Amino acid sequence: MCPCQWIWYDGWRFVFSVVLAESGQAQRLGEGLPLQRVACASCWKSWTLWPAFLYPRRQFSPDVSEAAALAYLATPSATYVEVGARFGCSWTSVWRWVGWLGRLTAAEDLLAAIVRLFPDSPAIDLVPRHVPQDHDKAYSPERAALLLSSLRTVVLISLLWRALPTPPADPSPLRWLLWVQFRAFPRPIGLGEGIASPAFHIDRRGPPSA
Questions:
Q1: Confidence band of 207 (pLDDT split at 50, 70, 90)
Q2: DSSP-derived pairing of the beta strands 18-20 and 46-48
Q3: Given CB 3.0 to 4.6 Å as the disulfide criterion, which of 21, 43, 63, 139 pairs with 27?
Q4: Helix (H, G, I), strand (E, B) or coil at 2
Q5: What is the percent of the chain where pLDDT is above 90?
Q6: Nearest residue to 64 via CA among 166, 178, 162, 160
């Protein structure tokens, strides 16, 4: 396997991601964000240098997915349509994010990691026992279990983030966890199997103009 020790700068990739602004509202990078691409000088494998506030293969940054899922799961009256309108996405995107989070990481694994870091943690008492709702948010036992798993995942990732001896610089616990896993196993965690990164065009070989 090529160690890719020497690289060439290989143009720019423009992404039009949606991120969470300080106001808590979703904001699209309408003019595009230029990301540097590089290629190995030996095997010519190429990749994009991603900033920490984004994540590969995501139009919506993980902090948006995290905030939207929590808004739906933790608010009794929330609906997919209402949350989607609030975060500037389709209601089906919120539906997918909730389901994806429910399958992302086992709650017991997150809880074990918290206890290893902080043996006296009250995390076990903070694990949600039900999804708050004033209407049926799930129409099958399987979906109901998935919603509860998703809520537990969001809560436990946040508790793990808080239990760290040195607080991460990233304010999004979910994005922090995804990057930790990506650095350990350099393969982006997709929302579903078989969904590839969209095609892109390299417009220039020099740096973006001012």
A1: very low
A2: unpaired
A3: 21
A4: coil
A5: 72
A6: 178
